[in-house]
Write a structure and sequence with these properties.
Layout lengths: L3 E5 L3 E6 L6 E8 L6 E6 L5 E5 L5 E3 L5 E3 L5 E2 L3 H10 L4 E5 L12 H10 L1 E7 L1 E5 L3 E5 L2 E6 L5 E8 L7 E7 L2 H8 L5 E3 L3 H6 L12 E3 L15 H14 L6 E8 L3 H12 L5 E5 L20 H5 L5
Parallel strand pairs: 4-9, 11-18, 14-18, 16-17
Antiparallel strand pairs: 1-10, 2-3, 3-9, 4-5, 6-7, 7-8, 11-19, 12-13, 13-18, 14-15
Helix pairs in contact: 1-2, 1-5, 5-6
Keywords: Hydrolase, Lipid A biosynthesis, Lipid biosynthesis, Lipid metabolism, Metal-binding, Zinc
GO molecular function: metal ion binding; UDP-3-O-acyl-N-acetylglucosamine deacetylase activity
Function: Catalyzes the hydrolysis of UDP-3-O-myristoyl-N-acetylglucosamine to form UDP-3-O-myristoylglucosamine and acetate, the committed step in lipid A biosynthesis.
Length: 317
């Protein structure tokens, strides 16, 4: 955890296709001033640019993806994989310019976004980092599924469980403390997934038009159709946890607390975050404190924070 806000130490760019639109899209991540937060800059077809802050207040769609939009009609969808990488790596301030309505799906996970961010590293800024500390539990239920946020002394803990009728998935659960290291090794590489039997219905509804085994785990009747198989035996629940990190990043500040979900998804993730934000007594905004020591394993990744001592004359990471 960093005591000061961070931005990118340089500019990075990625491109690909939208998993639902199938359309080519490019995006650029640029450094931003302290206090900016995460802002999408949507380039419209006529060349105009619309700023869409990464805020829960601007969520206007949660079916199979998280969509952000402003009152003018400008929107950007499938934001969750990039937002997960941004939040987990501790990137506070960044401007994301995107030339289409959907972010590129790349390989279906957050790994390409993690690699892009780490290729330039983070730069600490002078402003203190602000956190959203959960003060009391909030819970939302939908059918047999639920999501809840609860207090914790420090850090952010995820506990995600899924239960699918398909024998290829079944019941899976993962629990971990979210850190740059745990996200990088345990969640970032987990890919989105879908069933081949649903593809025609999804196409008719305007979804999955860019989906393929290059960016999605495709499940047949009795096997995974991707030639390389799974990256993790429980890759499905790891991806659901990844999505939760991205959806909860729309809080506007890193959360301090615990998240638990069962049979959740974008809709439940957004609903429990909305319930938290709707109750001013359920959270407090606090300054981050400098950690006592670096996270084990991050010492060999010095580019993650690009020489903060040079910026402040003291250690700020």
């Amino acid at each position: 955890m960093y005591a000061h806000q961070t931005t990118l130490a340089g500019t990075v760019a990625l491109s690909g296709v939208g998993v639902h639109s199938g359309a080519p899209v490019s995006l650029t991540l640029d450094p931003a001033d302290a206090g900016t937060g995460v802002v999408f800059v949507r380039v419209m077809p006529n060349g105009d640019e619309r700023e869409i802050p990464a805020s829960h207040a601007l969520v206007n769609g949660t079916e199979l993806q998280t969509v952000l939009g402003d009152p003018s009609g400008a929107s950007v969808s499938t934001t969750e994989h990039l937002l997960a990488a941004i939040r987990a790596l501790g990137l506070d301030n960044v401007r994301i310019t995107v030339d289409g309505p959907e972010l590129p799906i790349v390989d279906g996970s957050s790994r390409p976004f993690v690699e892009a961010i780490e290729s330039v590293g983070l730069q600490a800024q002078a402003a203190p980092r602000r956190l959203m500390k959960i003060l009391k539990p909030v819970r939302v239920e939908q059918g047999r599924g639920f999501a809840e946020l609860a207090p914790a002394p420090q850090g952010f803990h995820l506990d995600v469980e899924i239960d699918f009728a398909s024998d290829l998935i079944g019941r899976q659960r993962i629990a971990l403390d979210l850190t740059p290291g745990s996200f990088r090794t345990e969640l970032a590489g987990a890919r989105t997934f879908g069933f081949l039997k649903d593809v025609e219905r999804l196409w008719a509804a305007g979804f999955a038009r860019g989906s393929s085994t290059d960016n999605t785990i495709v499940l047949g009747e009795d096997r995974v159709l991707n030639p390389e198989g799974l990256r993790f035996a429980d890759e499905f629940v790891r991806h659901k946890a990844l999505d939760a990190v991205g959806d909860l990043a729309l809080s506007g500040a890193p959360l301090v607390g615990r998240f638990r979900s069962f049979c959740g998804g974008h809709r439940l993730n957004g609903a429990v975050l909305g319930a938290l934000l709707a109750d001013p007594a359920a959270y407090a905004i606090v300054d981050a404190e400098a950690p006592a020591r670096r996270e084990r394993g991050d010492a060999r990744r010095p580019a993650l924070v690009a020489n903060p001592a040079a910026a402040f004359g003291h250690r700020a990471a």
